[in-house]
Amino acid sequence: MNFDIQDLSGTFTVWDIVMALSLSFVLSAVVAWVYRKTHKNVSYSQSYVQTLVLCGMVIALIMLVVGSNIARAFALVGALSVIRFRNAVKETRDVGFIFLVMAIGMTTGTRFYLLAIAATAAICLVLLLMHRFSWFSLDVQRQVVKVQVPPDAEFTARVEDVLVRNCSEFELVSTESVRSGALTELYYTARLKKGHAPADLIEELSQVNTGQRVTVLTGYDQTDV
Q1: Measured between alpha carbons, how far is residue 56 from residues 17, 31, 50, 78, 81 in Å?
Q2: Residue 149 belongs to what H/E stretch?
Q3: How far apart are CA 21 and CA 15, in angstroms?
Q4: At residue 152, what are phi and psi to the nearest 5 degrees?
Q5: What is the rounded distance in angstroms from the CA atom of residue 111 to the CA atom of residue 181?
């Protein structure tokens, strides 16, 4: 019985397997390191980073199996269609890293080794430069203001008067009835004026909402909530 891989596959050799998997591992690990280096928010996941490396290697293997065989490609699509992913991606940036390791797996699996190395180096360099020099950052810190008031237009007007005094801009995002209609919960996005602290805003709002709950979340656009 002949167990020669060359005869069984007909499309790749042992060297192709070793080279594709090894290179996809190295390049995916570089991408994972860049992700770890440039990650800013609080929801860092070691599992996600390890999955990036695994994804690159698995896709390289898939591309070796598929090769130029259309029948295999359609069979693979049918097999993978049963997979369902339930975890939500918190950052759009994370999706970009997934596509990057997919591209690495595809290029190494189709044996475009030089392209895989050059593209990974160029894209990782761009990511490091954007992180180092904070490209496209918006140096504005906004707040989410959540305040509960009695269901009366007068109290809503009082809350907005406080926001006018303390904020350079604000916008009502949503209104929700709570406690079986006994209270109304107002959500605002706001930007505090210079010299005004969130504690001052909370104190003033507490004076006009009959002692109900007041919450101010600072820097919501720079953290995971």
Answers
A1: 14, 10, 10, 20, 19
A2: strand 143-149
A3: 10
A4: -140, 135
A5: 64
Instruction: Please state whether the predicted TM-score (pTM) of the whole model is above 0.70.
Output: no
Q: Verify that 117 and 182 share a domain, yes or no.
A: no
CA 135 – CA 171 distance, rounded (Å): 27
Q: Report strand pairing: 214-218 vs 167-178.
A: unpaired
- Residue by residue, pLDDT tens for the chain (225 residues) are 554 544 445 567 888 889 999 999 999 999 999 999 999 877 788 999 999 999 999 999 988 888 766 666 666 666 566 556 566 667 788 989 999 999 999 999 989 999 999 999 999 999 999 999 888 876 667 788 999 888 888 888 899 999 999 988 888 888 888 887 788 999 998 888 888 888 888 888 888 888 888 888 876 554 444
Q: Are 20 and 123 members of one domain?
A: yes
Domain of residue 151, residue span: 143-222
CATH number for 197: 3.30.70.260
Same domain, residue pair 10 and 101: yes
